[in-house]
Amino acid sequence: MTPSKSAVTSKIAFLTMLPCVIVITLFCLAIPLIMLTIGITKMDDCEADPRIPIWMVVVAVLMLIERLVGSVNTVKDRKFLKENPKPEFSEDGGNDALVDWKNRKKNNKSTLFAFLGSFVRLIQFVAVVVGCFWVFGIYSNSDRCNGYVFWTSYFYCLISIIFYIVSACILGCVCCCLAVLSSD
To answer: PANTHER family in the record, alphabetically (predicted)?
Structure first.
């Protein structure tokens, strides 16, 4: 039996994205593992604010939990796609099989894990905001904190702020585009 065109296209798309997915996953795992290691090994090495190493551990654990929870629906999606190939689009209007397939794919996702992932991301955001106040608050006393603890926390906060600002700008642009398109 020859595989369908959509199955082959899906396989090619997955294989072309695989290196990118692997790099992003390794990067997303490296950051929390580095923060966790530094936070645990240097727990008592920040006199300026002893909460910062604890904060590093908490944020690292939240990142790992978020990755774990996020991967559940990804695995379920891959399994669904493997067991249920996407039906072909029909030009004559008989697309009931495609609509049914999309509904089954949507219902395949775990709403509990989707909610849990959103909740963990919200807690993560709040933790980053609190951590930014603590880390930037000791900038003038950074010599009273271990360099690994302070600079890792500092750059993590800086990168997080940049990420949240860029994300908010993109979200704003998407909302504006949708508003313009829906008004036409």
So the answer is: CONSERVED PLASMA MEMBRANE PROTEIN-RELATED, PROTEIN CBG12353-RELATED
